[in-house]
Design a protein that fits this description.
The complex is a heterodimer of chains A (about 375) and B (about 775). Chain A has about 375 residues and is mainly alpha-helical. Chain A is built from 15 helices and 3 strands. Chain A is globular and about 55 Å long. Classes of the chains: A mainly alpha (about 375), B alpha+beta (about 775). Chains A and B meet through helix 8, helix 11, helix 12, helix 13 and helix 14 of A and helix 1 and helix 2 of B.
Chain lengths: ~375, ~775
C-alpha cells in the first residue's frame, strides 16, 4: 500500500457522514434526557460515541485495505457469516423476543448488521464472476439461492426487516448486473405466487409474527376502532414532526421528545425527534446529508476502475438509501412500521459500525479508481 | 494487491438511470410529506402536541355547611382517610416493594395478592377485592404518578401509623377525602337530603361548571339538591404541563383557586324536630303495637310560624339514614328503600298527597260564609245521615243516596260555628251542595275551588324542596277528562268535606290553617333563614318558582347590574332583571326577565328573596288581594262573572272562632278531649289557648283495595289534625298526618299537642337563657 492512494480519499463523503453521526449523537443526548435508565444505567450517548470512534478506526482500516481483497475472500466471508448466524440462532440470547444479539461483557453485537456487508461483498463477487451469463435463468436462480441461504438465518431469528434489506441488496445487484427485464417479470410472478402460498405457513410457524401482520394491516387500513396503543406510536410521530414546524421547538425543548410522548425517539423515531426539535430545517439537513452520501457512493460506483468496485459501491448506496427511505417513510406514516433504523443517526452500535465500514469500502473504491496510479 | 484489474464489464446506463429515478422519487415523496406535515398541518399538529402535554386539573371546592336556626350543624364535611400508593414513588428494588406490601397488608388487612389485574380493572375505586399488587400494577400502566386507593375510609389511628411509616414505606401515603356527614342523620334526612355521584343525564352541565366526574358529588334530594349550585361552590382550575407518565411538571397558567360553597342556615329547630319525630313515631308505634300489626305505614308532621312561613320542623315517616349514602350509595340499601311500599325516600310532608277530609272544611266554611250561603245565626239541622239526590246533569232526575256523618247520632240543630266545632259532615254537605229550602243555594264546586286555592290548595307551595306534589281540587271539566263522567251533585257534597277527588299535601293543609290563623295573610313557607358565604357574611339570594337561584352580578356585555342565575355562573351572558309580567292565568306576577343567546325574551315566574330572610314573604292577603274569582250560581251550576273579590276580615275571624270552638266545645269539640286532658296521654289541660281542626279522611287507594278494606260505610281512614296557638297571637301552626291512622282526634291530635307543648317549652327555655 502506498500513501499515494490517500490523495483520492473523499473527505466530502467522510465529512458528510461525520456531520450526520455527530447530529445523531447530539439528538440521542436530547432524546434520552431525564431517563435514568438510558442515561445512567446504560448510557446510550457514551456507547454511541464509543461505537463511532471504533467505527472511525474501522472505516480508515477498510479504506486502507484494497477492496479487491474482499473479492478473493468472498467465500470465506460468506461461510463465516453463515456459521455466526447459525450459532446465534442456537446459542444466542433471546432478547426482545428475538435472537439478534451477541452479548459481550461491554456491549451487544448484532451480527445481522454485518451480514448486510457480507451480502454486498459476496454477491458482488458472484455477479462479477457470472455477469456475462446473467441472462441465463440458471445463474439468476443460483444467485437467489446464495442470497437466500444467507438470509434464511436472519429470517429465523426472526428479524424480518433486516432480511428484507438483505434481499433488496441482492435484487439491486442482480438488476445492475443486467438481469433481462422479461426474466425479471417471470421471476416476480413466480415469487409473488410462492409468497402467497407460503405466507400463511410463515405466520403459522411464527416466522412472520402476529405483530408484524398487524402492523401491515394497520397501515393498509387503520381500524377506526383500534385500541389507542396500536396507532399510538405513529400518531405521536406525526404530531412530533408536525408540531416542529419550520424551525422546530428548539434543541432540548421539544415537548413531544422531552415529555416522552414519542416512543423509541433515540432509534427508530429519531427522525421525528429531529423534526420536533430542529424543525424542517433540521430534517432537510439530515435528508440532504443522506442524499449527498448516497450520491457520493453512486459516484464512486461510476468512477470505479473495475466492476467489483462498482457493484460494492452500488450495494453500499442501496444499503444506506433503502434503510433511510424506509425509516423516514415510517416516521412520516408513508409505510408500515418496521424496525429499520436511520443510518448514522439512530442509536445502535452494530448498525453504525456496519454502515461506517460500508463507507470505508466505498472510500477504498474511490481511492483506487485510477488504474495507472501507483 | 498489484494484480492487474479485471477488465471492466459494461453496466447498462439505463439500469442505473432507473435506480437514480427511484431514489429521487423516494426522496421527493418524503420531502413532500415533510412539507405537508410541517407547513400545512403545523397548527393542528401543534395543537395536538399541546393537548398532549397540558392537563387541566379541577380543584374541588369545599361544600357549604347546613345549619339549623340555632347554628346546630345538620350537614358538614368530615375527613375520610384513604391509604393510597403512588406506583412511581415505590422503591426501585422489587424485594423492597414486596416488603412494603407485606407490612402494609398486615396493617390494613388487604391481601398482597388477590385475583388478577384483569379482574381489578372491572372494579371502581374503593371496592374491596383486588390485592395490593394487582391494584398497583394496574395503576402503573394507567397513571404511575397518580395515587391509587388501596383501602378507603381507614380509622384515624391507622392513618397516623401510615403517616409515621412514610419514611420506611416510600410511595405509600394517606389521602384525605372530604365526605359529607349529617350529625342529625335520619332525623332530618327528608329535609336535608343526600349526595350522589354526578348523574349521566347532567354530566355536560356539571363538567361544564368545572366539576369532575367520579370525584365531585351533587345533591340528590332535599336542600342538598335544591341549593346544589350555592352549596357546591365553584371549582378551581390548574393548567399544568405533564409528561407521558402523567407527572405534573409546572403550571402553564396561573392557577385559579376554588371558591367554597355558601353555607345554609335553615329555619329548622332541631330540638322541635326531635320532639315532632318522637311524637309521630311514638304515636305510630303505639297504634301499631295496639293493633298487633303494621297499620299506620306513613306519617308526617310539620310545624311552621304562620306569620313568617318559617318551617320549624318537618318530619316524614318512615325516613332513611342519609349517612349511609355519604361515601357511595350502597345498592342493597338503595334497593331496600326503593322497594319499600312506604317510600322512605319520599318526603311525605310535601311530595305525597292524600284526601284531606274534614281539615278541608276550613275552605268550605270560609267560602260559604263569605258568599252568603249561610249566616252566623242560621240554625242548621245536622242529623246522622242525609239522603241527597245524586244527579249527573240538569235533566237527570237523580237517584236518592244516603250521605253519612261520622257521628251516626247526629248533632241536632246547630249554628254555623258549631258545624265547624263538631265537624258535622251533614252541615257541610248542605253548605257545599245546598239542601232543599234550608240552604237554598250551596257553595258549589267552582266557588269552593276558589276559596280552597286562596288558602293554598291545588298548587305547589314552592317551598325549597324538589318534587313537591300539587294536590288537587277537581273541577267538572277535570272529571270529564280524567274520569270520563259528568260532575254529579254528590261529587260536590263529598268535595265539601274534603273527600272524593280532593287531594292535598300535609303542607297545604298546614298553609290553609296558617292563612286563617294569620288573619288571611298567605305567607311563603320557607326552610331558609340565611345564606352565608365562607366568611360568614350573609349573601343576597333570590329565587323564582322553578328553583332557579339568583345573585347580584354585573353583565359582562353591557356592564349593567342585574341578577345572575347561579346555576350557570357569573360568566353567563344572560343577566336577569326583576320585572312584572302576566302569567298564563292572566295575572300580573313578579318574576325575572332576561334575553337568551337568540335575543328571545325569557320570563321566569316568581321573585322571592331567599336570603337574608325578610321576616316573611306574604304571597297574598285574602282580605285585601282580590284572589277570588266571582261566580254567579243557580243551583249546582255556576258561571264566572269576570269579577274578583276578597274575603271579608269578619269571615276570617269567624272561622278562627270556629276553630277555637273545636278545642273549647265541651265535650263534643273534636280537639276538646286532647287539649283539655281527658285522654290516655293527657290528663291536664293545655294551658295556652289553641285553635284547630281535625280530619278523618276516608280513602280507598290501591293498598286498601288489595286488602279488601273498601267496604261501604267502613272505609279505612287517614288521621289529620292541624292546630295553631296562641289563639290571639299565633306563632306556631302544626299539622300531623297518619296514613291509615283512624280518627284524627284520637291519633293525630295527640301528636299536635305534643309538638305544641315542646314548642312552648323550648320557647320558655330560650327566654330564660
Amino acid at each position: 500500500m502506498r500513501g499515494g492512494f490517500w490523495r483520492h480519499f473523499d473527505f466530502w463523503l467522510l465529512g458528510a457522514m461525520t456531520v450526520l453521526v455527530i447530529m445523531g449523537i447530539t439528538m440521542i443526548n436530547s432524546a434520552i434526557a431525564g431517563n435514568i435508565e438510558l442515561t445512567v444505567t446504560t448510557p446510550l450517548v457514551n456507547r454511541q460515541i464509543i461505537f463511532a470512534v471504533i467505527g472511525f478506526v474501522f472505516l480508515m482500516g477498510t479504506a486502507a485495505i484494497d477492496y479487491r481483497l474482499w473479492s478473493s475472500m468472498s467465500n470465506t466471508l460468506y461461510v463465516g457469516m453463515i456459521i455466526v448466524l447459525i450459532s446465534l440462532n442456537v446459542i444466542g440470547a433471546a432478547l426482545f423476543g428475538s435472537a439478534r444479539w451477541f452479548t459481550t461483557t461491554l456491549i451487544y453485537i448484532q451480527p445481522s448488521e454485518f451480514a448486510k456487508l457480507v451480502m454486498i461483498l459476496s454477491m458482488s463477487h458472484f455477479f462479477v464472476q457470472h455477469m456475462p451469463e446473467i441472462d441465463k435463468p440458471k445463474w439468476a436462480l443460483r444467485s437467489l439461492l446464495m442470497a437466500m441461504f444467507l438470509t434464511v438465518w436472519v429470517i429465523l431469528q426472526p428479524n424480518l426487516s433486516t432480511s428484507i434489506v438483505l434481499l433488496v441488496i441482492w435484487f439491486v445487484l442482480l438488476w445492475v448486473a443486467g438481469i433481462p427485464v422479461k426474466h425479471l417479470v417471470g421471476y416476480a410472478a413466480a415469487g409473488v405466487t410462492i409468497l402467497a402460498i407460503t405466507f400463511p405457513l410463515l405466520v403459522q410457524f411464527q416466522l412472520v409474527q402476529d405483530y408484524q401482520v398487524k402492523r401491515i394491516l394497520n397501515f393498509v387500513s387503520p381500524d377506526p376502532n383500534a385500541r389507542y396503543g396500536d396507532i399510538y406510536n405513529i400518531q405521536q410521530a406525526l404530531i412530533s414532526i408536525g408540531s416542529g414546524g419550520l424551525f422546530g421547538q428548539g434543541y432540548g425543548h421539544g415537548t413531544q421528545v422531552q415529555l416522552r410522548f414519542l416512543k423509541v425517539r433515540w432509534s427508530d423515531f429519531i427522525f421525528s425527534a429531529i423534526s420536533n426539535e430542529l424543525g424542517m430545517v433540521g430534517a432537510l439537513i439530515v435528508i440532504g446529508l443522506l442524499v449527498f452520501i448516497i450520491w457520493r457512493c453512486l459516484w464512486a460506483a461510476r468512477i470505479s476502475r473495475d466492476t467489483y468496485g462498482s457493484l460494492v459501491s452500488y450495494g453500499v448506496a442501496t444499503l444506506i438509501a433503502f434503510q433511510a427511505i424506509v425509516n423516514i417513510g415510517v416516521n412520516l406514516n408513508l409505510m408500515p412500521a418496521t424496525g429499520l433504523t436511520l443510518p448514522f443517526v439512530s442509536y445502535g452500535g452494530s448498525s453504525l459500525l456496519a454502515n461506517m465500514i460500508g463507507i470505508g469500502l466505498v472510500e477504498s473504491v474511490i481511492m483506487r479508481h485510477k488504474v495507472l496510479e501507483l | 494487491m498489484n494484480t492487474p484489474a479485471v477488465p471492466r464489464l459494461k453496466i447498462d446506463r439505463w439500469r442505473i438511470f432507473i435506480f437514480y429515478a427511484l431514489l429521487l422519487l423516494g426522496v421527493a415523496v418524503l420531502v413532500f410529506q415533510l412539507i405537508n406535515l410541517q407547513v400545512f398541518q403545523y397548527s393542528t399538529r401543534l395543537a395536538q402536541a399541546n393537548e398532549n402535554r397540558t392537563n387541566v386539573i379541577s380543584i374541588p371546592p369545599t361544600r357549604g355547611i347546613i345549619y339549623d336556626r340555632n347554628g346546630y350543624i345538620l350537614a358538614r364535611n368530615v375527613a375520610s382517610y384513604n391509604v393510597v400508593i403512588t406506583p412511581a414513588s415505590l422503591p426501585n428494588d422489587e424485594a423492597d416493594i414486596q416488603n412494603v406490601y407485606r407490612e402494609l397488608s398486615a396493617l390494613i388487612n388487604v391481601p398482597v395478592n388477590n385475583g388478577t389485574v384483569e379482574e381489578a380493572k372491572l372494579l371502581s375505586a374503593c371496592v374491596p377485592g383486588p390485592g395490593i399488587s394487582q391494584l398497583v400494577q394496574l395503576q402503573e400502566t394507567i397513571a404511575p404518578y397518580k395515587p391509587v386507593s388501596i383501602q378507603c375510609n381507614v380509622s384515624e389511628d391507622t392513618a397516623r401509623i401510615v403517616r409515621e411509616k412514610s419514611m420506611d414505606w416510600p410511595g405509600v401515603s394517606i389521602e384525605v377525602d372530604p365526605v359529607r356527614d349529617y350529625p342529625t342523620g335520619i332525623l332530618t334526612s327528608d329535609v336535608v337530603g343526600f349526595l350522589g355521584p354526578i348523574p349521566a343525564r347532567d354530566e355536560a352541565l356539571y363538567t361544564g361548571q368545572g366539576f369532575q366526574l367520579n370525584r365531585d358529588k351533587v345533591g340528590y334530594s332535599g336542600l342538598e339538591a335544591y341549593f346544589q349550585d350555592l352549596l357546591a361552590g365553584v371549582p378551581g382550575k390548574r393548567v399544568v404541563e405533564r409528561d407521558v407518565a402523567g407527572q405534573e411538571l409546572s403550571n402553564l397558567e396561573p392557577p385559579i383557586a376554588a371558591q367554597s360553597g355558601y353555607n345554609l342556615v335553615t329555619t329548622i329547630d332541631t330540638r322541635l324536630q326531635k320532639a315532632a319525630d318522637a311524637a309521630l313515631t311514638g304515636e305510630i308505634n303505639y297504634w301499631n303495637a295496639y293493633f298487633g300489626k303494621i297499620r299506620i305505614t306513613t306519617g308526617a308532621v310539620i310545624a311552621m310560624n304562620p306569620k313568617t312561613g318559617e318551617i320549624l320542623a318537618m318530619v316524614s315517616y318512615p325516613s332513611y339514614e342519609n349517612n349511609r349514602m355519604a361515601r357511595f350509595i350502597p345498592s342493597y340499601y338503595y334497593n331496600q328503600l326503593a322497594q319499600d311500599p312506604a317510600k322512605p325516600m319520599l318526603n311525605h310532608a310535601v311530595s305525597d298527597q292524600f284526601p284531606p277530609g274534614s281539615v278541608f272544611k276550613l275552605s268550605t266554611a270560609t267560602g260559604a260564609l263569605n258568599e252568603g250561603v249561610v249566616t252566623l245565626d242560621q240554625i242548621i239541622d245536622a242529623p246522622g245521615q242525609l239522603v241527597l239526590t245524586e244527579s249527573f246533569s240538569p235533566n237527570d232526575p237523580g237517584r236518592e243516596r244516603p250521605f253519612v256523618d261520622w257521628n251516626a247520632a247526629g248533632f241536632g240543630k246547630i249554628d254555623f260555628l258549631h258545624c265547624i266545632a263538631y265537624s258535622s259532615n251533614v252541615c257541610f254537605y248542605k253548605l257545599g251542595g245546598g239542601y232543599k229550602n234550608e240552604v237554598k243555594q250551596g257553595l258549589g264546586i267552582e266557588r269552593l275551588r276558589e276559596y280552597a286555592r286562596a288558602l293554598g290548595y291545588d298548587q305547589k307551595s314552592n317551598i325549597e324542596l324538589l318534587g313537591e306534589a300539587a294536590g288537587l281540587i277537581p273541577t267538572p271539566q277535570w272529571k270529564r277528562i280524567n274520569r270520563g263522567e259528568n260532575w254529579s251533585t254528590g261529587d260536590t257534597y263529598i268535595a265539601s268535606v274534603g273527600q272524593g277527588y280532593v287531594l292535598a299535601t300535609p303542607l297545604q293543609v298546614l298553609e290553609s290553617a296558617a292563612t286563617i290563623a294569620d288573619d288571611g295573610k298567605h305567607v311563603q313557607p320557607t326552610l331558609v333563614k340565611a345564606i352565608t358565604d365562607s366568611s360568614g357574611k350573609v349573601v343576597e339570594i333570590w329565587r323564582d318558582n322553578e328553583a332557579n337561584l339568583y345573585q347580584r352580578c354585573t353583565s359582562p356585555t353591557t356592564n349593567q347590574p342585574g341578577w345572575c342565575d347561579t346555576g350557570y355562573g357569573i360568566t353567563d351572558q344572560v343577566v336577569f332583571s326583576q320585572c312584572q309580567q302576566k302569567n298564563d292565568n292572566g295575572q300580573m306576577v313578579q318574576g325575572f326577565c332576561g334575553t337568551d343567546e337568540k335575543k328571545q325574551p325569557i320570563f321566569r315566574e316568581g321573585a322571592i328573596q331567599e336570603s337574608p330572610f325578610t321576616g316573611g314573604h306574604v304571597l297574598w292577603d285574602i282580605t285585601k288581594d282580590p284572589v277570588i274569582n266571582d261566580f254567579q250560581c243557580d243551583g249546582p251550576y255556576c258561571v264566572p262573572t269576570g269579577n274578583t273579590k276578597t274575603v271579608s276580615p269578619d269571615v276570617v275571624k269567624s272561622i278562627q272562632t270556629g276553630m277555637r270552638m273545636v278545642v273549647t266545645s265541651d265535650p263534643i269539640g273534636t280537639l276538646n278531649a286532647v287539649f283539655s286532658g281527658r285522654t290516655r296521654d293527657f290528663t291536664t289541660p293545655f294551658d295556652i289557648p289553641v285553635a284547630g281542626k281535625t280530619g278523618t279522611a276516608e280513602y280507598c287507594d290501591n293498598v286498601a283495595q288489595a286488602a279488601n278494606r273498601c267496604q261501604f260505610g267502613s272505609w279505612p281512614t287517614h288521621a289529620w289534625t292541624v292546630a295553631y296557638g296562641p289563639f290571639n297571637d299565633p306563632e306556631i301552626v302544626v299539622v300531623a298526618f297518619c296514613y291509615n291512622g283512624g280518627e284524627g282526634a284520637t291519633v293525630a291530635a295527640p301528636i299536635v299537642r305534643k309538638v305544641l307543648e315542646a314548642y312552648f317549652e323550648i320557647k320558655n327555655i330560650d327566654s330564660t337563657k
